[in-house]
Amino acid sequence: MEIRIGTSGWHYRHWRGVFYPEKLPVRKWLTYYARYFDTSEVNATFYGTLKPETLRRWVEETPEGFVFAVKANRYITHVKRLKGVTDSLKRFYESLEPLYPKLGPVLFQLPPNLEYDPDLLEDFLWALPREFPLALEVRHPSFHQETFLDQLRSRGVALCLSDTAGRHPSLFFATTADFSYIRLHGSRRLYRSCYTEEELQEWARRIRGFPVKKVYVYFDNDALGWAPENALRLKRILGLPVRSLPEEALKILSRRPLD
């Protein structure tokens, strides 16, 4: 099994002094990040279209084998709500073209108030381009049924397993593709709480048990800077190559609250 673990984004100014050295210029943050992780999830694409030169620079600043997961634009999921999105999908994927050399899974996150409509979902799944792996994150309880999972399996789309401090209960352990996609936003407080050793050990156990070829894991508990530390700890538990954080960063994190 190939396991890639990183964080949801890397451009956080409050990570200065916690993950990034105090004097490291912002323009060098991605290169520094890539010393520790071989993947990152891009959220900026959810809010707008990024400049081609920005995407080309990301490709140049990361080593061979680095993978970017990308969150699909909210116009497709939250404005159009999956209806009649063929042209929108085409434009979105075209905007990502400079990132293609290092593009991994594309995540489509549905709004919390979008209920399960099997016909709408089927039309959407058939409209999705197949060049890159696809993951779907649902947040309405009406999706919690086997029929929905069967639809994903028929198209090879991964169900995103998302830990959101209980806000949007996920269909844990359901695998619907040859890869799994996991987003960890915090187990007790959204975007904030540090995962405990016991929680990380449990996630490692789950990951080892997935019947898939690849697993992508992204920590989004960034508010207090715990995301990179938790990601590195999970890598270590799973026996992946790990570069330890500088001692000074570990001292700063040790003084921060866990929630």
Tell me about this structure:
This protein has ten helices and eight strands. Helices cover 35% and strands 17% of the residues. α6 packs parallel to α7 and α8 packs across α9. The protein is of the alpha/beta class. Strands 1-2-3-4-5-6-7-8 form an eight-stranded parallel barrel. The longest helix is centred in the last third of the chain and has 13 residues. The protein has one domain: Protein of unknown function UPF0759 (TIM Barrel), CATH 3.20.20.
Keywords:
10 helices
CATH superfamily: Protein of unknown function UPF0759
Count of separate structural domains: 1
- Write down the Rg: 18 Å
Gross morphology is globular
Largest sheet report: 8 strands, parallel, barrel
- Output mean pLDDT: 93
Count of alpha and pi helical runs: 10
Task: Give the secondary structure arrangement, pairings included.
Layout: E1 2-8, H1 29-36, E2 39-42, H2 44-47, H3 52-61, E3 67-71, H4 74-79, H5 86-95, E4 103-109, H6 118-127, E5 134-137, H7 146-155, E6 158-163, E7 179-184, H8 197-209, E8 214-219, H9 226-237, H10 247-254
Parallel strand pairs: 1-2, 1-8, 2-3, 3-4, 4-5, 5-6, 6-7, 7-8
Helix pairs in contact: 6-7, 8-9
Give a short summary of the structure.
The chain has helices spanning 29-36, 44-47, 52-61, 74-79, 86-95, 118-127, 146-155, 197-209, 226-237, 247-254; strands at 2-8, 39-42, 67-71, 103-109, 134-137, 158-163, 179-184, 214-219.
